[in-house]
Amino acid sequence: MVTAAQQSASAPDAARTFPKGFLWGSATASYQIEGAAAEDGRTPSIWDTYARTPGRVRNGDTGDTATDHYHRWREDVALMAELGLDAYRFSLAWPRIQPTGRGPAVQKGLDFYRRLVDDLLAKGIQPVATLYHWDLPQELEDAGGWPERVTAERFAEYAALAADALGDRVKTWTTLNEPWCSAFLGYGSGVHAPGRTDPVAALRAAHHLNLAHGLAVRALRDRLPAAAQCSVTLNIHHVRPLTGSDADADAARRIDALANRVFTGPMLQGAYPEDLLKDTAELTDWSFVRDGDLQLIHQPLDFLGVNYYTPTVVSEADGSGTHTSDGHGNSSHSPWPGADGVAFHQPPGDTTAMGWAVDPSGLYDLLRRLSADFPRLPLVITENGAAFDDYADPSGNVNDPGRIAYVRGHLAAVHQAILDGSDVRGYFLWSLLDNFEWAHGYSKRFGAVYVDYPTGTRIPKASARWYSEVARSGVLPGA
């Protein structure tokens, strides 16, 4: 049965006006766009190593050049200004700032971000800096990576360096982007860097990412002006049971614990969920959680960043689905430790080029749940978007009606959630540019701006022009 709210979210047919001050932006990540992999002191990250390993990334693609943003950043900022964006969410490359993951910062690396931020501010665009979007310095991985506590300690030192250098310019900071992917795809299923396949290491990594977040927030608060904002971005999975059975409800509970509450519990409530500890007891006793860790992790935040693309549908395993169909990449190893009895199912409806179902009602339901669970915590959509098989026509235009429909539907869901009481402060379209899409290489295009990779030429797609009008007016047109 489709509720009235779901119907409104999935079938917009009237103009909707967003609240005054609602923030309109777009987002990128350092390894996906910067290139310049060995310039000005930058050393390899785990993604450099992973991408250069045969068989890891489609077509053998790497981020060595990516969209060459490191050299074309002025052009990209000019595009943002042309599109009328209020804000730009980007990530700092840890190995560009602190190549070995320890010691003093490399000033050439910091200077790149200083120039970028200064140009954003000069054009009236608010910089939103993410400290970590998956490019761990390879030397830290060689020393054990995120499963080891020392990595969290090093991250706090890196956060302090970034805050000291950019805190007079950047007022909004995010510690981690999607730590679930870092922990469970990087150390569980191995479909992301560093490509390890150890369920216990994945759980250890999750804890030390949580700890890194808490230590980084504390370091940022110690150095930033009082008005600065600190946040974290989570890819909260909207988990739905396939049927109304108790078994399927329990499958959804297990995945919700591993996907969501493993982070929201300690970060926002100061404790790991008891059911998560019970579900994973055969793998670990969680003795890597030390006395005082939960207090360090549980730091006050100014908002929660929410990344959403598609819902997750699960059931009790009965032979009709496996963990490899969860939408996160195929592997013979599961990213879901302690959940071997759960099957994943393709949600109904249209799909994007990623094979992900288009379902704005999932975003509405997710926002309403977060508002109920954490009623005093503002929310920002830090990523939402879709990949389609875009191409430039003979006239040099890129028409992408599927992306326009996708974004319109999801913005309608956000608007409905706001009307129903959710405190949503902004929306960042993923992504500003076509770019290196992790293990998919350059085969998937998420950008509002088309990139011709051989030449680097940027072409705003029809969706970029459409989104520009929404951002400038604050009004979502009807279908």
TrEMBL record:
Catalytic residues identified in the record: E178, E383
Iron-sulfur recorded as keyword: no
Gene Ontology CC, one term: cytosol
A GO molecular function held by the record: beta-glucosidase activity
Gene3D superfamilies: Glycosidases (3.20.20.80)
GO BP of this protein: cellulose catabolic process
Source organism, top-level taxon: Bacteria
Record keywords: Carbohydrate metabolism, Cellulose degradation, Glycosidase, Hydrolase, Polysaccharide degradation
Region (Disordered): 317-344
Enzyme class: hydrolase
Keyword Mitochondrion found: no
One Pfam family it belongs to: Glyco_hydro_1
Coiled coil: none
PROSITE patterns from the UniProt entry: GLYCOSYL_HYDROL_F1_1, GLYCOSYL_HYDROL_F1_2
Compositionally biased intervals (Polar residues): 321-334
Residues reported to bind substrate: Q32, H133, N177, Y309, W430, E437, W438
EC nos: 3.2.1.21
Reaction catalysed by this enzyme: Hydrolysis of terminal, non-reducing beta-D-glucosyl residues with release of beta-D-glucose
PANTHER family: GLYCOSYL HYDROLASE, LP05116P
Similarity comment: Belongs to the glycosyl hydrolase 1 family.
Record protein name field: Beta-glucosidase
UniProt source species: Streptomyces pilosus
Lineage: Bacteria, Bacillati, Actinomycetota, Actinomycetes, Kitasatosporales
